[in-house]
Amino acid sequence: MIKFKMPYLEPYTTRDSRHRCPRCNHARTFTFYIDPETGKPIHRTVGRCDREIKCGYHYTPREYYRDNLPLCGDLFDGNQSKGNGEQISGNGKQISRNGKFSDKTVVTGDLFGVNSNQSGMNNNQSETIDYIKILDEKIDCISHRYVICSKSSDSNFVSFLYDHFPGERIEEAIDRYALGATRNRRVIFWQIDIDDNVRTGKIMQYNPLTGKRVRNERGGINWVHNILKKRSYVFQNYNLCQCYFGEHLLKLFPNKPVAIVEAEKTAVIGSIHTPDFIWLAAGNLNGLNVPKSRVLRNRNVMLFPDAGCYEKWAEKMKRISREVNCTMEVSDVVEKHATEEQLINGYDFADYVIEKLKGDGENEKGECDSNESDSNEPAGEETGPTNNIKLPSREPSPALQKMIDKNPSLTTLIDKFGLVEV
After folding, report:
1. Residue 217: pLDDT band by 50, 70, 90 thresholds?
2. Among 58, 77, 109, 408, which lies 20 to 30 A Cα-Cα from 283?
3. Domains, the chain, ranges and CATH?
């Protein structure tokens, strides 16, 4: 049997481990995908740019091998080239000038540096492997004991939560999302799929006062599977296939509507503030996609993209709702409330919730002061022309009304955040 090692993103070591992006040309923002056989980048264009909103470049190994398989010709035995510029692979298959195979190309084991004789086959036999199929189907998981051992409220992120929300709600969120903590008070956001398999854990550091992520070298993102790979040879070929953060809750609450945000922090805050929904996190701007969304089949879903990302998620929504067969809407509440400065610095649904909570607190204080001053005025005197006037409410569209009929709790979300149908 042929053993295959999965390509992986280059781990962060120093600033030199981040490179110039081939699209936006920004220095130290690009992460290469590494060939596990050679330990070197697959190609200078294969990787991901950290500037997800302003650039969004992400060229995966799967796309590269689909588009440029002949560029790996030096791994074939006996590759030759014709005088007309076309190449012929070792198995005699002709490759066109544009250097592309079809999506159904089956690649021989020699492409990945595997000698067929070493795997017990003679020269007349050639075991083949479908690279695309392996990428789609091979999923590795982590033992639940790591989740159990790490579960803790001793993280800076949880400390921030206690400044804004009731302790009972926070403890409930810690239990449901199995939030963990490291010795230096980083939070661990575990990715547990709908079948309760632990895919990985995302380790992040937060400022306990502001709730903002610490982005320096020590506070950078780390992953549990990366740590395990360094500690044990058993995890050396770990194939990470990510799922939505909070996905395991879909099985626990089959009738609840779903809300999806970008960041794990935002999903936790959303679940505390509006528990009538299952709050999932895509993990990043491009984390919302069709493969991960197949678990949302026949569900009612509301998307809350970060400021500046509305158009991109609106496009993704159309494709997902069509291919997955789910009812999906996208909210522009964050987009509308973000200022120019917030757009630059980053503004998401969690910021909106915290901002609203602070505003409500100030309004309550203002109302108390106003009531005290009004007590000196004669009873029955009107203070303004708009007293006791109700503004007419707008009727929901048939599509929205259908969602409300299926999930009445949707009205709670609309009322709480003043959502308007567009």
Report:
1. low
2. 408
3. 8-137 (no CATH), 139-240 (no CATH), 244-360+395-422 (3.40.50)
